[in-house]
Amino acid sequence: xxxxxxxxxxxxxxxxxxxxxxxxxxxxxxxxxxxxxxxxxxxxxxxxxxxxxxxxxxxxxxxxxxxxxxxxxxxxxxxxxxxxxxxxxxxxxxxxxxxxxxxxxxxxxxxxxxxxxxxxxxxxxxxxxxxxxxxxxxxxxxxxxxxxxxxxxxxxxxxxxxxxxxxxxxxxxxxxxxxxxxxxxxxxxxxxxxxxxxxxxxxxxxxxxxxxxxxxxxxxxxxxxxxxxxxxxxxxxxxxxxxxxxxxxxxxxxxxxxxxxxxxxxxxxxxxxxxxxxxxxxxxxxxxxxxxxxxxxxxxx
Length: 301
Ligand SMILES: [Zn+2]
What we know:
Blueprint: E1 2-4, E2 8-11, E3 14-18, E4 29-35, E5 38-42, H1 50-59, E6 67-71, H2 77-80, H3 83-89, E7 94-97, H4 102-106, H5 109-119, E8 134-136, E9 142-145, E10 148-154, E11 163-167, E12 172-174, E13 181-183, E14 188-190, H6 200-211, E15 217-220, E16 224-227, H7 233-252, H8 258-269, H9 281-300
Parallel strand pairs: 5-6, 6-7, 7-8, 12-15
Antiparallel strand pairs: 1-16, 2-3, 3-4, 4-5, 9-10, 10-11, 11-12, 13-14, 15-16
Bound molecules: zinc ion.
């Protein structure tokens, strides 16, 4: 497996952009796809990232007027944050999202509040997206890009509204957060099991769905692109880290009280927080530990 974790065109028509969110490299990335005179962007980054992302894409040859859709993987602020600001610069564009979250995008106060709880001062307010610019996507829906299509694949687990985007002609997937967070340099995948939305069983079902796709490129928002015939190894890595955590929870349930169990899981998840700014890491580990423990309980209860 090879990796790409810079800003540029890593394959004909496919562009990865480091949004340099929170003043950091390798925290949040977005994907662009161009076919002929049309293009789409996958995810929009944090609320203050729109200008940087659009400027980077323009430099790489994706002009504002060519962009027809900004396709969001889910409602979290680090993915949906810049949707409305982007629209102001993209006269021909719609925002694509799961129907569960269309209303929240039009009234983004809850998304912002949720973002603040995790990101603290790094979360800045979101503007509402006009309802007429929102396209609620069905499972399997095809979005036209020039002569080609992108397919919306419902992949709940990380959140209930999660969509991964598949470009069959490129054997490429923008996987959002459902597989986990990819530590490109060590080729390891950490769980992205945020409280309160993580659902372990749905995650496993979504992983099987992704496994059935023919893929050479798997692009992660956090962070980088896995490339090659063996790109799907990231699925095995993800399942392995989830299983290891699951064992810890099962072994200690009944032995440790709730707070101690969270502590135990947090230790394992410490490295998984490298994508967050220093001051947020402790909180992120807490959210993931609680999310994982609750996510398993949903499954067994
Ligand atoms: Zn997320």
